[in-house]
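Propose amino acids for all 642 sites.
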């Protein structure tokens, strides 16, 4: 049984711990005296012997307690050549975490998590405990904490020792608030305590209860899909196209120093969606983009990560690290080349031999890497294919990509490597309750991108093999991925841009535990894999999750009728008319979608509910939603209103 205690200076009037798995309860307390700069803390003490080996979850903030080796790095954090190693342990940046032995504490606000919740799993005692609560009371966020087996909820939020201010933990603390003697405080919560046999069951419990607190979960109003597509296609044709390089996936070609980037943030991904959604112009330009991609292929079979429009690499120095290649990019490339090819076959378009030959070379390079190392690593030497930084799930989309290549080329060794590597990712990462290495600038912090990519791989492997194992892995990864997705509509500070626009956050996806913002969509996938899991299992929660993710990005798109202004514009909307020049300069152009959905104060309180004036990968994600998820939803549920 979990014990609940109340901090000093507050009297416990009602605090029920025994009604596990029922509806939400309230802890009702009373201030014992007039209090200055104080806070109320509820502490939940599970009947679990704390050894430091427990699995601690703060959704989208902390996985396995973030109990990894940590390095302080200015942005963008990268490994040095001296730190690099093939058999590398997981190394993260300076984020909220426990020590490797489980000591220390984590103290965050509800804005730092996708779901206001702390979970604890003891593999030794086969027991799981979850404490759920709400975002805020009277405009002030609650706090969440964990230390030595104890889970805490505070009001107001109280980080007593350190506060995460990107990119470092800083020795600061929150202020409390004043309470009058006799003041009644009510803290809603739900406590779940269950026997739990494994991490898969732990995440199933989480997934089933992620919306249990009754907060607003309504989806946003969205523009008609045809209108969204028109705006996005026009924007990409005007701002993301260059004859020499094709469609850029992120940013705009006018930005000084903007490089063409493969995979990850949309290069070679947006072209597929534009070819599928657009007309003859987009088709022609999509083919030109593929020509550019193969122009950047190296003798190793891999590609250049970033290059200018002529294909010249951005890093061509003499040091070894300047030849490092984020393996996720080549995995993304292979997966989306297969999508391009299938689309070309559907449209009865001949696939150029140079495309086919280059794709075989890429597939063979990845298979050879797997055979040599038994992993794909995180960074590899782009010229030799040798792994230089290993030990991550950066290549978690590669099993799905190789399975797709098997379908297309009928090469059995592609499928063999796909199945073997898929099993490795499941054992080495998914079953340990974290995935790493998706973004290339967070060292190896847990992240959502590698998690959703692994879900995609498992779904493809089930489609190709029809082996039940991969369906089981797919359902677990869908449950796990839900922990990165915001489950409710955050109440933004009055005066913020998102409060002005009444933005809804349900379905936005946190990026990783370092860059602590949620975002409009998955970087960089459509999420249609969730619909496939729903189709196979008939579990309505998967359909709900898929809809949440698919229907949120477009509201973050700036349009002429509903412009979005950057956080450098006065917060009071009425002041916009008094500074027309600045307002126009900081108005996001039509079609821009910024990646920032800031619930956290990681970039300062000023940036909560605001965006910078930038064009981001979320535009590619929305294009992919329009090209894949919306048609699948329509096909499966024609009679159901979205």
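Proposal:
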């Amino acid at each position: 049984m979990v014990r609940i205690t109340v901090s000093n200076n507050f009297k416990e009037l009602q605090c029920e711990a025994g009604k596990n798995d029922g509806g939400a309860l309230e802890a009702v307390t009373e201030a014992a005296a007039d209090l200055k700069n104080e806070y109320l803390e509820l502490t939940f003490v599970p009947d679990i012997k704390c050894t430091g080996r427990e699995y601690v979850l703060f959704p989208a903030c902390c996985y396995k307690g973030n109990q990894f080796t940590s390095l302080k790095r200015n942005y963008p954090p990268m490994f040095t050549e001296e730190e690099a190693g093939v058999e590398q342990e997981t190394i993260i940046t300076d984020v909220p975490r426990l020590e490797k032995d489980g000591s220390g504490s984590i103290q965050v606000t509800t804005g730092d998590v996708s779901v206001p919740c702390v979970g604890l799993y003891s593999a030794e005692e086969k027991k799981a405990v979850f404490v759920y609560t709400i975002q805020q009371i009277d405009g002030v966020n609650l706090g969440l904490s964990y230390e030595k087996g104890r889970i805490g909820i505070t009001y107001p939020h109280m980080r007593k020792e350190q506060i995460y201010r990107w990119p470092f933990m800083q020795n600061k603390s929150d202020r409390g608030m004043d309470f009058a003697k006799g003041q009644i405080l009510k803290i809603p919560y739900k406590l779940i305590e269950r026997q739990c046999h494994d991490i898969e069951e732990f995440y199933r419990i989480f997934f089933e209860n992620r919306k249990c607190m009754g907060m607003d979960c309504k989806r946003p109003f969205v523009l008609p899909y045809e209108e969204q597509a028109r705006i996005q296609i026009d924007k990409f044709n005007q701002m993301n196209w260059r004859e020499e390089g094709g469609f850029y996936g992120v940013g705009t070609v006018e930005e000084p120093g903007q490089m063409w980037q493969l995979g990850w943030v949309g290069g070679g991904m947006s072209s597929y969606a534009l070819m599928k959604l657009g007309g003859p112009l987009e088709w022609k330009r999509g083919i030109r983009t593929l020509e550019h991609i193969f122009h950047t292929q190296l003798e190793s079979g891999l590609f250049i990560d970033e290059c200018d429009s002529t294909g010249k690499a951005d890093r061509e120095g003499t040091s070894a690290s300047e030849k490092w290649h984020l393996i996720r990019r080549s995995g993304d490339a292979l997966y989306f080349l297969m999508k391009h090819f299938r689309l070309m076959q559907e449209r009865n378009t001949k696939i150029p031999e140079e495309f086919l030959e280059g794709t075989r070379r890429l597939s063979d390079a990845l298979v050879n890497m797997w055979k040599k190392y038994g992993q794909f690593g995180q960074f590899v030497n782009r010229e030799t294919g040798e792994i230089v930084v290993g030990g991550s799930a950066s290549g978690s989309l590669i099993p799905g990509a190789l399975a797709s290549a098997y379908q297309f080329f009928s090469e059995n060794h592609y499928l063999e490597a796909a199945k073997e590597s898929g099993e490795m990712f499941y054992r080495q990462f998914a079953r340990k309750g974290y995935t790493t290495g998706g973004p290339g600038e967070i060292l190896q912090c847990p992240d959502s991108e590698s998690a959703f990519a692994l879900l995609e791989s498992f779904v493809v492997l089930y489609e190709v093999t029809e082996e039940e194992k991969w369906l089981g892995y797919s359902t677990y990864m869908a449950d796990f991925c839900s922990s990165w997705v915001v489950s409710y509509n955050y109440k933004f500070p009055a005066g913020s841009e998102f409060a002005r626009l009444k933005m809804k956050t349900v379905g936005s996806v946190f990026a990783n535990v370092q860059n602590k913002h949620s975002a409009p969509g998955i970087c960089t996938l459509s999420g249609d894999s969730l619909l496939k899991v729903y189709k196979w299992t008939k579990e309505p929660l998967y359909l709900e999750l898929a809809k949440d993710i698919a229907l949120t990005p477009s509201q973050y798109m700036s349009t002429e009728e509903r412009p979005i202004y950057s956080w450098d514009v006065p917060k009071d909307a009425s002041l916009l008319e008094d500074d027309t020049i600045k307002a126009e300069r900081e108005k996001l152009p039509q079609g821009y979608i910024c990646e920032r959905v800031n619930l956290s104060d990681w970039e300062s309180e000023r940036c909560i509910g605001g965006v910078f004036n930038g064009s981001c990968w979320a535009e590619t994600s929305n294009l992919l939603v329009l090209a894949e998820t919306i048609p699948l939803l329509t096909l499966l549920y024609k009679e159901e209103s979205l």
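The chain has a mean pLDDT of 94. DSSP finds 15 helices and 29 strands in the chain.
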